[in-house]
Amino acid sequence: MVAGGSRDRAICSKAQGGISLLKSYGSQVVTSDFGRQLGARLASALTVSCGAAAIAVPEALRTLRRQLDPYVNGVKWRFMGILASIVDLQADLHKARYRCEPSPVKQAEQLDSELARLHRDPPLSWRLQRVSPVRDHPLIFSSYYDIFPNQCAVQLANGIYVMRLLLDRIITMYSPSNPSESDTCGIACQICASVPQFLPLVAQQDATAPFSPVPRLQCCTLLALLYVAHYVSEDVAMRAWIERCLQYMSDVGEMKIAQDMRDAMASNLDLDYWFAVSMVGSYVFAT
């Protein structure tokens, strides 16, 4: 595992590198289709890097988004815009700017409402298929799991889920007498339901061979999400199931990072979500 200080410096360096690119070429990326595609990817990656570095989204990125808005649309672009606002809110809270003010609660509630609306109306081509196996399976939580049509769809859905959990935590911390209206348990269950699709033992692939690169990368996208679900859940069965999945990824998939994450859970470490992201790399969002 990389030392925390080295990881923080690497994240900040990546964010600053993206900012430098925007300042140098920002106005040029909207002049061609290829440039706009590259600009959208850069905007997404830089937003995630800013979140991991606990810094606000730079003005250069806001400018780029405004320039791309007439050309780039869709649920993913809208989600990344909401994510940028969440990153800004968390950066402010990190600096204790809102310590005694109600503003973060109101902003968190508004952002949660925007995410809920976004989740209610996914593109038809991204809608999931819910599967209810006849027999119980140790790597399926509850009685069902979800199959998404593509990687982008599942990453976007999980991005919405985990951001709603983080916003719920902000609301609870800064307004304990006015709890969030989010269904924390239900959201955590949705994260759990997205996992079995990518586990070879459930997908009826070779369940004993080490994971190939694609399943390993797919499982990496789930680790920070599972950490958050484990942290917020009061369901003993859910927490045990998450630990079992990580142990499977570690033992069969030969994913040491899964064992590192499980060890953090067992130690009851209160890791920041973005720190968990930085442990596995910025694979949580389909950038």
UniProtKB/TrEMBL annotation:
It comes from the Eukaryota. It comes from Daldinia eschscholtzii. This is Uncharacterized protein. InterPro entries: DHMBA_Reg_Transcription_Factor.
